[in-house]
Each structure stands twice: as C-alpha cells, then as structure tokens.
C-alpha cells in the first residue's frame, strides 16, 4: 500500500473537505456571517461590503456581505460531487463504447471519429459554451435538480468522444499482445476475451482515466463560471449594489458552488480581488491534490506494466550496469 | 469511384455529426418552468438547421459574413496566436537547454518547479497577472500595459504573455522529459566520448531526433493557446474573433455562420497538424496522412 501513499492522503483531504461541506448546516452560520453596513456610534455608515480580508473575515466578504470562507465551504460539495460524477460517467460510457467499438465494430471506428470531428479541432470550452447557452443562458424557474441533471448530461457528453477514443487505442494495443492472440487461436469468444483478458487492464487504466477526466471537468466547470453558466442556474436576487437600474439584475450563483463564485465576482475584480481569488485558490488546491494523485497512479501503472515507457526506462537503467565490477576476474592459471 | 463514395460518406457523417452535436441541448426544452425531454423538438431543430445549411443560394445565406467585422478581428486573434506560439516555441527550447546544462542537483530542483506549474489552473495565472498590472498602475500611476480592449484599443503585450504562460511550461516539461530520455542513448554517449560539447549535442544531435515528437506536441500547445485566447478575449473584452463568435451564438443563432466560425477557429490546428504529418512523413517515409 506504500505505493499509493500520496493517493490515500490526497483523497482523504478531498473527502474531509466534502464531509465538512456536507455537514455545514449542522455547525455553520446559515446567513454566512452576513454583515451589511458598519456604523459608528452616531449611526453614520462608515463601511459597506465587500469588506477586505480582516481578522473577523479571514478571506473577506462578498458584495452581498457574506463571509467568503463560509461560502466556499458551503459550495464545495456541489463542485466536488458534480465533477466526480461527471468524470465517473464519462469513463463508464467511454469505456463501454470503446470496448464495443474495437471488439465488435472496428469498421465503425473511422465513422465515429468523423462524426465527432468537432471535438478534435475545437477546444471543448467553446463547445461547452455553445451547448450550455440554451439551458442556463437566461433566468428560468426550472427546479434546480433537473437543471443540474441537464448540465451534467452535457458535461458528460463533452468528454465521451475523447474517452471512447482513448479506450479504443488502449484496447487495440492490448488486442495485439500475444496472450490475447493465443487466446483467440484457442477459440475464445470475444466476450470471454473482454472479460478475462482485457478487464483487468481496463480496470487499472480506468482509474487513471477517471483522475484525468476529473481534472478536465474541474477546469471546464471553472471556465464556464466565467461565462456565467453556473451549475444550478442563476439567482434572480442578483448582487447587492451592482444592479443596473434599467437592465436585468447581475446574475449571482444560486448554489454558491465555486465556479459560480468566480463568475459572479470577476466583474468586480478590480475593486474586490479577494472575492475571485478565494474560489480560484480553492480550485487550485483541489487541482493540485488531484494532479498529485494522477502523477502517482501514472507512475505506478505505466511503470509496472510492460508498456513502452516501462521498457525504455528499464533498458536505460540497465545500460549503466553493463560494466563488470573490479576484481571479479581471476586468472585460471595462476602460477 | 470507391474513394469518391468514401469521401461522400465521410462528408455526410461529418455534417450529421455537427448537426447532432450542436443541437443536443434542444433535447431538453424548457416549457412552463419544467424541462421536458423531447425527441420531436430535437428533430425539428436538426431539420431546420439542415435546410438552412443546404439552401446555398438563398438570399440570406451567410449574409452576416459581410456585416460582422470578421477579417479585422480574425487577424487580431491570429496575430496573438502566432506571436505566442513562436514565443513559446523558442523560449521553451532555450530554457530546456539551459536547464539541462545545469548540474544534476540544481536540475532536479528546477524540474520539480516546472512540474508544479502543470497543476496551476489558467484562471489563476490570468487573475494574478491582471492583479499585478492593476497593482502597478495604482502604485506608479503609469499605464504601462493596456489591459482591456475598450474604445477599440488592441493591446498585444499582456494578452500574449498571459496566453503563453502555461503552454510554455507545458512544452518545457515535455522537452526536458524527452531530452533527458534521449541523453541515455548510445549515440549521445558516443558523442560525449568524442569530446563534443553538451550544447552542441543538445542543440544539433538530440534536437534533430526529437523534432518529430516536438511537432506532434505542438498540436497540444496550439490547442491550449486557442482555449486560453478565447477565455482572455472574453474576460478583457478584447475585440477579437471571440466577440464575433459570441455574437453569433447569442444574437444571430445562424447555423451556417456557426460552422464557418468554428472552421475558421480550427484552421490553425489543422495547419499545425498537416505540417506535422507532412514533415513526419518526409522524415519517416511512411505513416499515412489522414484528416
């Protein structure tokens, strides 16, 4: 288990954050330490939100007067659970499609690539923006659960072509190996091969895929926040003091998930940078942890399995050991 | 004959792929504050988009092509892309060589630093640079760098720096990894035994061997830069191609225009890929080229 030390520590931290966020209603203030105006003794207003970071508000407050730290803690669960679900579903669907494509329908491979040509040449952020626009682009009163479901479906869809093609690549590599070939020669059915020979490999690879997809999902959720497509939709109440009297209210996030916090704060960046930096740093922390996990899994899987990298590394290290240690030669005829 | 048939099939599949992908949200239609799954609405949208796409000689076909400032904005965006690509390319090679020339212990530390940057989200970099520029402005009162694209301004410096920051580290990390692996090869050992200097080995001999790999990696770099440009142009309100694109999505909703915009955005990637394929083909003499 010592091989996965970092993974265990990292996932424990993530789980703790998630747990703390889920249990928030039990201990946290329901109004996020709301603080509207500061008045002096004579009742004159001497300050209004957003307040910069101070002792009472370690990360400052948002423009609505809520403490950023509590907001961040409260919103963590939505961000984490959504990205995790999306990553899991992407790998699941991608894996199943990929296995099907390369085992039973190899002729469909090129058609599949052509069908999803857009995903090869256009950054997924652009596609995400186009696809999200009809659903969360405007204010609506759809129940939050169904809205989030739609968003998750779209986010999953964005990753499926890549995940499928990656699975196809790996499965094709595996099908060329000698143990699969000899299994075919002995008359094994395709299903049998998939179950007995490919599944162990696919299982270990899918963990790695999932971590990679988790990273890309986190990135894309964060970017969508900038464009104002918050998870869970927009809050009509808007942001205090930022309303355009004639136009629609400036959208605020309904669920307080992190991307939404970035999105609602970023127009305010010049005046109150802490409202943006706090959620971005939150993302940074999570991404660093996930990346650490990814690195370790990558090292363990790709280093141990007989892939190209592993072979190369072994060869490279064995080159240096060619030399014979000193004093190991002994003359036979010592006279 | 067979190849023509294949070409037609591919074309049909590609177009239907576009139609499917970009009409996907219409599966969920919002009605009376409820989301309803309907295949019918989706089909209608697909049919409508297909028809607008097919009426090549209609009066309204691609009319916005003349209305929107496409050429100007496209030029601006592509200038940023090309500048940062060149910057990233040469700077990364230079830095990689410098890092590999340092002693082993320093090298390992530098590698750790570079690996760390892989995890930094691009938004953090953008915000930090923005913060720095504003901080400088507030402290010195001098407007050294133009940040926002208001009043038709076209800043170059800050967008290029912001956009190339993370791709630089990405390419640097890749180069160092590949070059370190190459250093264990027999021919490098032989060259060193012959007494050829490390700079020459790195720049001439190793570089020649990793060049195909580098070309393949450039595709990823262009991809990242494009995504970053899109973000930056939106955030700093620059008058780039993104604005045309944005207008098209939200106001015009014209399907043929959307495709034209997407294809225009994809041109740099396709170009890099084609150049890479052609060069690798020339170098290796095999590997079939395919879009």
Quick overview:
Chain A has 12 helices and 4 strands. With 335 residues, chain A is mainly alpha-helical.
Q: Can you offer a commentary on this structure?
A:
Chain A has 12 helices and 4 strands, in the order ααββαααααααββααα. Chain A is mainly α and 335 residues long. In chain A, 63% of the residues lie in helices and 3% in strands. Chain A is globular and about 105 Å long. Chain A has one domain (2-30, 57-304): MetI-like (MetI-like fold, Orthogonal Bundle). Chain A has helices spanning 5-22, 24-27, 68-103, 108-115, 118-121, 124-136, 144-175, 178-185, 190-226, 258-265, 274-304, 308-319; strands spanning 38-39, 45-47, 234-235, 252-253. By secondary structure, chain B is mainly α. Chain B has a single domain (76-284), classed as MetI-like (MetI-like fold, Orthogonal Bundle), CATH 1.10.3720. Chain B contains 11 helices and 2 strands, in the order H-E-E-H-H-H-H-H-H-H-H-H-H. In chain B, strands 1-2 form a two-stranded antiparallel ribbon. The longest helix of chain B is centred in the C-terminal third of the chain and has 38 residues, at 198-235. At the A-B interface, helix 4, helix 5, helix 6, helix 7 and helix 9 of A face helix 1, helix 6, helix 9, helix 10 and helix 11 of B.
Give me some keywords for this one:
heterodimer, A: 335 residues, mainly alpha, MetI-like fold, two-stranded antiparallel ribbon, 12 helices, 3% strand, B: 291 residues, 11 helices, disordered C terminus
